[in-house]
Description:
about 100 residues, 3 helices, Trna Endonuclease, Chain: A, domain 1
Amino acid sequence: MTESELQDRIIGLCDWLGLLVYHVNRSDKALVSSKGFPDLVITGPMGTVFAELKSQIGKPTQEQKEWLGTLARSNERVYLWRPSDWDNIITILKEVAGR
């Protein structure tokens, strides 16, 4: 599964669960958003998740690691999700939705 396919599945699940999703467009371009900002911000009645998405073999950039680390140290729910994490993704997003 590609990163794009994973993203589509996650957004579809969020829609089904009634969660709000913000997708960062082209975070690799500083003029659009901060370089390295996580791919998805997902929020619902039980909290907010910041998720960086990668293919099964993709590696986060240094800027992505910085964002994820800083958010995690701020006690945010931060994840690096890959296709193999699908069952865990479902569990986490159901929690965020309060289901």
